[in-house]
Design brief:
By secondary structure, the chain is α/β, with parallel strands linked by helices. It is built from 15 helices and ten strands. The chain has one domain: Glycosidases (TIM Barrel). It starts with a helix and ends with a helix. Bound molecules: beta-D-glucopyranose.
Length: 383
């Protein structure tokens, strides 16, 4: 039985507003929970019930039962990760909705184009089917399909928990849901090859400040370590994995199997011009240029030097988990490609692995409507 998890539920779960947790689960799993069947108190998550959870997980499709995990150092793994790309997040494919994504075809296409790592953002919270934290087995099957396709293509696959907005809005609920997700995923993938990496939470921010985050980390890493003592885990700092917050990140000192991550979208006025989720000032911006002037390059290189120095001082290899430009209101492809190339080279030159945001859509390296790569972006991403 997992004492770390019970501790976690006790520490955070009992402090949480049960109503908020239930509201969240009810909203996302309304088909499963109605009326009297619906549990009303998170305190129901007792040790005994969590033991049942373990039995239930054993009933999941045991894809990696006979697989063998072989330890790889985080340094070697980062060296092998090379050029990566993000796909997953909000694609309706996860819910069986209308999507052009075909895991076997698209992941093979990524590999053929030169990508060796796939970061898969998972919006897993809405696939929890009860307040005890059980993930819908059908959702795990979906994740398995993606993981299998990546492994078949000899790619490294990062399972990134991406409910960062929910975590900011309802931090108490997050403190229960996140450990439960990691309990499930860790158990499910415990025998998977080392090509499968876990990323605990995308871009913690807002109420998840450095103190909260550093405090949670020990518990979350503890849960993963019960079943995956040597698997590499990706962890980044607060304020949306900001490079400026690396200094505040306190990683469990005795645990070597950790890869530090940060995201880079600077200057936001360029990469996020027109983005309606990034604040009013950026929403109405148009025509901001980035051509790689000496000042622009000096800022980029200064930022990356800082990250490299932190990595060296803290003895942690680094993965740039997201970088990209929003193209919906920026039709200057030469600028977008110049920025993408400069950031890719800044990462490569310092030995960071990297993953472009995003495979398709408005940031896309691939145009799924035309069925072809966006060549200037693809070229800029080449190793
Ligand atoms: C978010 C996306 C967003 C991207 C760039 C990601 O972490 O999940 O919604 O488009 O960052 O802002």
């Amino acid at each position: 039985m997992t004492y770390a998890l019970i501790n976690h539920v006790l520490r955070y779960g009992l402090a949480a507003g049960a109503a908020a947790v239930l509201a969240l689960s009810a909203q996302s799993a309304s088909a499963q929970f109605k009326g009297a069947d619906y549990p009303t108190d998170v305190k129901n998550s007792t040790g005994a019930e969590l033991d049942n959870l373990q039995d239930r997980i054993k009933g999941y499709n045991d894809l990696f039962k006979d697989a063998k995990f072989e330890e790889i150092s985080p340094e070697d793994q980062v060296a092998r990760m090379g050029a990566g790309i993000n796909w997953g997040a909000y694609d309706p494919w996860w819910e069986g909705g209308k999507s052009s994504f075909n895991p076997n075809k698209d992941i093979a296409r990524m590999k053929a184009a030169g990508f060796t790592t796939l970061r898969v953002p998972l919006m897993a919270f809405k696939h929890i089917v009860d307040t005890k934290g059980n993930l819908d087995p059908k959702y795990l099957d979906k994740i398995d399909t993606v993981v299998q396709a990546a492994i078949k293509n000899n790619m490294i696959v990062i399972l990134d928990e991406h409910d960062f907005d929910t975590c900011e809005k309802d931090t108490d609920a997050c403190a229960i849901l996140l450990p439960n997700i990691w309990y499930d995923l860790s158990e499910h993938y415990k025998n998977a090859p080392s090509n499968v990496i876990f990323e605990l939470l995308n871009e913690p921010h807002g109420k998840i400040d450095d103190q909260v985050w550093n405090d949670w980390l020990a518990g979350l890493v503890g849960i993963v370590r019960e079943t995956n003592p040597k698997r590499n885990i990706v962890i980044g700092p607060v304020q949306w994995n900001s490079i400026d917050q690396l200094d505040k990140l306190k990683l469990p000192a005795a645990d070597h199997h950790i890869i530090a991550t940060f995201h880079y979208y600077l200057p936001m006025e360029f990469t996020h011009q027109g983005a309606d989720w990034a604040g009013d000032a950026l929403k109405s911006l148009r025509g901001v240029r980035w051509t790689g002037t000496p000042e622009q390059l000096a800022k980029l290189n200064g930022d990356f030097d800082k990250a490299a120095a932190w990595g060296k001082a803290n003895n942690r290899p680094i993965f740039l988990g997201e970088y990209g430009t929003y193209g919906k209101f920026n039709d200057n492809m030469a600028d977008r490609a110049a920025w993408t190339h400069a950031v890719s080279k800044a990462a490569d030159g310092r030995g960071f692995a990297r993953a472009y945001w995003y495979y398709d859509g408005d940031f896309g390296a691939y145009d799924s409507v035309k069925g072809q790569w966006v060549q200037p972006i693809l070229d800029a991403l080449k190793k």
